[in-house]
Write a structure and sequence with these properties.
The protein is of the alpha/beta class. The chain has 13 helices and 14 strands. The strands form 3 sheets. The protein has a 10-stranded mixed sheet, sandwiched between helices. A two-stranded antiparallel ribbon has the order 2-3. A hairpin with a 3-residue loop joins β13 (395-402) and β14. It is globular and about 65 Å long. 58% of the residues are buried.
C-alpha cells in the first residue's frame, strides 16, 4: 500500500505568551516569559503561587456567551485555537467533503475546573445531589473535538487522545495516520488544557513537581539549568490542520510543511519518573526517524520536552546524545517551555507549531532562564540558551513525554525535501 503524503495547511495558537500564532511566535523569538502570580484563585496557602496563565483572554470575545457557559475552559481554548487554524487553512466549505474531514484532539486532564466546581458545590450543600446538567458534557475529555466537529459539520473520524503530557502529539500522529492511510482528506488536530485550578495546582504541588520559585516566577522555568526545581504549570491550546497533499494542491492551499513521521514508545518504568537512562525517549526518537525514513544526520533540531525537572531534562539529554551521536553537537536543541510553561496535554501541539515556524522563518527560539551549567548534562550540546539563533531548519523533531511513561515524537520537514 502506498501511503499518502500529509501536509500542514493551517495553524492556531492560544498560549500564555500570545493569543494567536503571530503573537506566540513574536514572544518566542524574543524570549518572553509567560509566568506570573496566579489570578484565578488565591494561592497564598499553596507551595507555588504562580503559573503561566493566558493574558487578556475573554472567551466571550470569540464565543457566544450562552455557548461558552456550556464549556469548560479547556474546550473554550480548543474552539478558539481551532477557529484560527481553520480560518488560516482557507477552506471553501461549499466544496469540502465533510464526510472526509475529521477532528482528533488531545487533553491530558479535560474539564478539571468543571469537576472541581461541581464537587465543591456539592460538598458545601446538605447532601442533596444538585448538579449542573452540563456537568458531564463540560468535563469529559472528548467533548472538545465534539464541539469542533459540530461547529464545522465535520463528519469524519472524531475522537480524543489521552496520554498525559503526550496527548496532543499522539493526536497529531493519529490524524497523520488517518490521512496517509486514506481514511480522511482533512483533520483538525492538536490539544488544549486548563489545569491552572485549585485542584491542578494542589495536585502537582503534592507531587513536588512544580517550581516553588515564588520570589522570581519569570525565571522559574529553567530547563537544563543546574538550579531547576520543577516545571511551571501553563494553559492554552494549539491547533493544526493536516491535509492530504494532493487535496491541498488541488485547492491551491498554502502549505507550511510536511509531516514526515511520528514515533511512540513507553518507558515501562515508573508512573511519574522517566527512565533514568532515557530509554523510552531514545526509542521514541528512533521510532520517529524510522517512520519518516530519515537518518539522525538529517535532523536540524529538536524541540525538547524540556520541562525543567531535575530527572526529566537529564534523561532526555542522554537520549539525544545516544540517538544522534556526534551529530547531536551540530543541532539546535531548545525548550519553549522555558517561556510558555508546561501546557500538559496541549504542549505537543504548541511546540509542533513552534517547530514549524522555526523552519518557515529560519529562527530557533531560545531556551531562556539559563544561568548555571549542570555538570551532569553535556555542555557541548547547543540548547540555544537565552537568545534565539538564526539557522536554516529543514527537519525538526518535537518530543513530548507524559506521566505513565507515555512518549510521542513528531517530525516535520520542509515540503521540497
Amino acid at each position: 500500500m502506498v501511503l499518502k503524503r500529509v501536509v500542514v495547511t493551517g495553524l492556531g495558537a492560544l498560549t500564555p505568551i500570545g493569543n494567536n500564532v503571530q503573537e506566540y511566535w513574536n514572544a518566542l523569538i524574543n524570549g518572553v516569559s509567560g509566568a506570573a502570580p496566579i489570578t484565578y484563585f488565591d494561592p497564598a496557602k499553596f507551595r507555588t503561587h504562580f503559573a503561566c496563565e493566558l493574558k487578556n483572554f475573554n472567551a466571550e470575545d470569540f464565543l457566544d456567551r450562552k455557548e461558552a457557559r456550556k464549556m469548560d475552559r479547556y474546550a473554550q481554548y480548543a474552539m478558539v485555537a481551532s477557529e484560527e487554524a481553520v480560518t488560516d487553512a482557507g477552506f471553501d466549505f461549499e466544496k469540502l467533503d465533510k464526510d472526509r474531514a475529521g477532528v482528533i484532539w488531545g487533553s491530558g486532564i479535560g474539564g478539571l475546573e468543571t469537576f472541581q466546581i461541581e464537587m465543591l458545590n456539592f460538598a458545601a450543600g446538605d447532601g442533596t445531589p444538585k448538579f449542573n446538567p452540563f456537568f458531564i458534557p463540560k468535563m469529559i475529555s472528548d467533548i472538545a473535538c465534539g464541539h469542533i466537529s459540530i461547529k464545522y459539520g465535520f463528519r469524519g473520524p472524531n475522537f480524543a487522545t489521552v496520554s498525559a503530557c503526550a496527548s496532543s502529539t499522539n493526536a497529531i500522529i493519529d490524524a497523520f495516520n488517518y490521512i496517509r492511510l486514506g481514511h480522511a482528506d482533512v483533520m483538525v488536530t492538536g490539544g488544549s488544557e486548563a489545569a491552572v485550578t485549585i485542584a491542578g495546582m494542589g495536585g502537582f504541588n503534592a507531587m513536588h513537581a512544580l517550581s516553588t520559585r515564588n520570589n522570581d516566577p519569570k525565571t522559574a522555568s529553567r530547563p537544563m539549568d543546574k538550579d531547576r526545581d520543577g516545571f511551571v504549570l501553563g494553559e492554552g491550546a494549539g491547533a493544526l490542520i493536516l491535509e492530504e497533499y494532493e487535496h491541498a494542491i488541488a485547492r491551491g492551499a498554502t502549505i507550511y510543511c510536511e509531516i514526515g513521521g511520528g514515533g511512540m514508545s513507553a518507558d515501562a518504568y515508573h508512573i511519574t519518573a522517566p527512565h533514568p537512562d532515557g530509554l523510552g525517549a531514545k526509542n521514541v526518537m528512533l521510532n520517529c526517524l524510522r517512520d519518516a525514513g530519515l537518518k539522525p544526520t538529517d535532523v536540524d533540531g529538536v524541540n525538547m520536552h524540556g520541562t525543567s525537572t531535575p530527572l526529566g531534562d537529564l534523561a532526555e539529554s542522554k537520549a539525544i546524545t545516544h540517538v544522534f551521536g556526534e551529530h547531536a553537537y551540530t543541532m539546535n536543541l531548545n525548550s519553549t517551555k522555558s517561556m510558555t510553561g508546561h501546557l500538559l496535554g496541549a504542549a505537543g501541539a504548541v511546540e509542533t507549531i513552534s517547530s514549524i515556524l522555526s523552519m518557515k522563518y529560519g529562527i530557533v527560539p531560545p531556551t531562556i532562564n539559563h544561568f548555571t551549567d549542570d555538570e551532569n548534562i553535556d555542555h557541548k550540546l547547543n540548547f540555544t540558551f537565552n537568545v534565539a539563533q538564526k539557522r536554516e531548519m529543514n527537519v525538526v523533531m518535537s518530543n513530548t513525554f507524559g506521566f505513565g511513561g507515555h512518549n510521542a515524537c513528531v517530525l516535520v520537514k520542509k515540503l521540497d525535501l
